[in-house]
Amino acid sequence: MNRIVLICSIGMSTTLLVSKMKASAKEKGINCTIKAISELELKKYENEVDVVLLGPQVKFMFKKLQNKFQEKCIPVDMINTVDYGTMNGEKVLKQALNLLQCKRNETKAII
């Protein structure tokens, strides 16, 4: 099961986006968990995640989190500003799944 975490300042603004992502995943038959958390909650979930997406309001954390999760081979990316602003759950889900696919391809190449 794919575990997707969206991070924003206090975890509230991504709640609607998560709902739309879950609806899109259900419609497509994709088995995943999707959570919206605040930057302060990250430590609690850092071992329960396969991909991390950041909302525009926390883009200042991108490099730090990318470096932190790189050693665990967990992709970190920014949510596209337009997709975030329009709450396009389908596109953000696709972004997360594409990152997971790249991760799997890289892991296969290493083995």
Automatic annotation (TrEMBL):
Signal peptide span: none
Pfam families per record: PTS_IIB (PF02302)
Transmembrane segments: none
InterPro entries: PTS_EIIB-like_sf, PTS_EIIB_2/3, PTS_EIIB_3, PTS_sugar-specific_EIIB
Keyword Nuclease in annotation: no
CDD domains from the UniProt entry: PTS_IIB_chitobiose_lichenan (cd05564)
Record's protein name: PTS sugar transporter subunit IIB
Organism encoding this protein: Clostridium tarantellae
